[in-house]
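Changelog-adjacent note: as of this version, every example in the card shows the full chain rather than a window. The one below runs 333 residues end to end.
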Amino acid sequence: MKKIYFLYVSLLALLLASCGSTGFVNLNYPQEPAVILPEGITNILVVNRSLTKGADKQSEKLESIVTGEVAGSDKLASDEAIKGVFDGIRNKSYLNIILPDTLRIYGTGTRQTPELLNWKLVSEMCKKSDADALLVLETFDSNSDIIRSAVANQVSSVLTNGKPGKILPNHVRVDVKSYWRLYDPYSKTISDQYQQTFYMNFNLVNGLPAPGVLSETAYAAGIDYIERFLPRYYKVRRDMYKKGKGSDKNRFNAGWRSAEVAKWHDAIAVWKEVVDKGGKSAGMAALNIAVSYEVLGDTNLALEWAQTAYRNYGDKLSRDYAKILLKRKRFEM
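Full-length structure tokens:
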């Protein structure tokens, strides 16, 4: 599997004492992403195919007046979904999203999924942008008509009665439906195709939505889609030793106190001194070093120290921990 670069933002919890001599740390553990890309796909070109070239300009104008958005709001919203894809994966993966100078190619402009793009065109587009694959927003549809209806009812009430309706809604749910395809020009296969339904709730003021609610929803939908290519995480617990033994007890405890305030490199330096002395606490210190390196995101060093703790000092916790790290290392390759 292609190597995945993990983003260690923060731990889910700091060290906690579970009993007198031991403690633990909770951290984020990766799972495979929903979509595993073929080897060699790094740069992905993204385009918007959800629009038609001869769109009804008058319809756009009416919609923009009623919803309070700029002209062509549905069109701009579909482009926002593309921006969401770009921002949703930037600096979080080995993948690189490429936005071309011409973001749009024209499709059906309806909910009906268009035919596959011609593979010659796909190859030409990827070659021009130095991309390995082409991600296409094939269709995009929103419920802006629902927003328009709610607003129109209030406008009608004002015109008829001189005031808004008596019962005003206090929120609105904005839905977008998108269909995405990822074209691999080299194997001429579809690496991913996904029908997405995404929604967000917004508060209304006097029965009216704020400008931009559709664009905001579309942008979030783009982020939601591209997260299919990112690893997911769940919380795991790593047991550690809190107290040392013998003459190294004070030094060992000093390392623990550094770990409690997330000074992991300081803690490692102290525990390495304990290991070098080879006393009663050496195996426990080696295990703590292993966990510290996993917290810091270095699975290789974590595995080396877990194996050392069991092989050289017979630490029982380290045997099972080394097996866990071996599995994680294979996943990260």
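Structural remarks: The first strand starts at residue 16 and ends at 17.
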